[in-house]
Amino acid sequence: MTVGHSLSIEDRVRAIVTAHDGERGRLLPILHGIQAEFGYVDEAVVPVLAQELNISRADVHGVITFYHDFRKAPAGRTEVRVCRGEACQAVGAENLMAHAQRRLGVSTGETTPGGDVTLEQVFCLGNCALGPSVQVNGRLYGRVGTERLDTLMAEADAR
Ligand code: FES
């Protein structure tokens, strides 16, 4: 469903809620819909969802923070997702993530000042045999070490 951008944020959120009318467990698909519509889940949607779904703001918050899928601020121009799934952990994913955090000066889920890079974690990219796996702007890379990660980030930044 396409929602016209001349509508207010609240109206756009309500339209997404309406699109999932009658579904069981609809908060998650609604939140995915909001992220698809706005690029992230803004704090301002919490009271609207609480009211529309007749649940507490704390419940909405709980779901947003529990699932790592939801971004709380607009993403940077480059999105780096480091896999922390079991198979990747066994071949150095934690080291890779720590390196990315140091290098970018951000924690997981944050964006560098200026909006250049957002660092995200995922828990499997379906590339387990070739870990550590990393996705940069939607492209998957395997056997990524710290140097390769630096190169990938620099290349993405140069585009
Ligand atoms: S655990 Fe990293 S790709 Fe599957």
Automatic annotation (TrEMBL):
Keywords: 2Fe-2S, Iron, Iron-sulfur, Metal-binding. Its cofactor is [2Fe-2S] cluster. PANTHER family: BIFURCATING [FEFE] HYDROGENASE GAMMA SUBUNIT, NADH-QUINONE OXIDOREDUCTASE, E SUBUNIT. Belongs to the complex I 24 kDa subunit family. This is Formate dehydrogenase subunit gamma. It comes from Actinomadura alba.
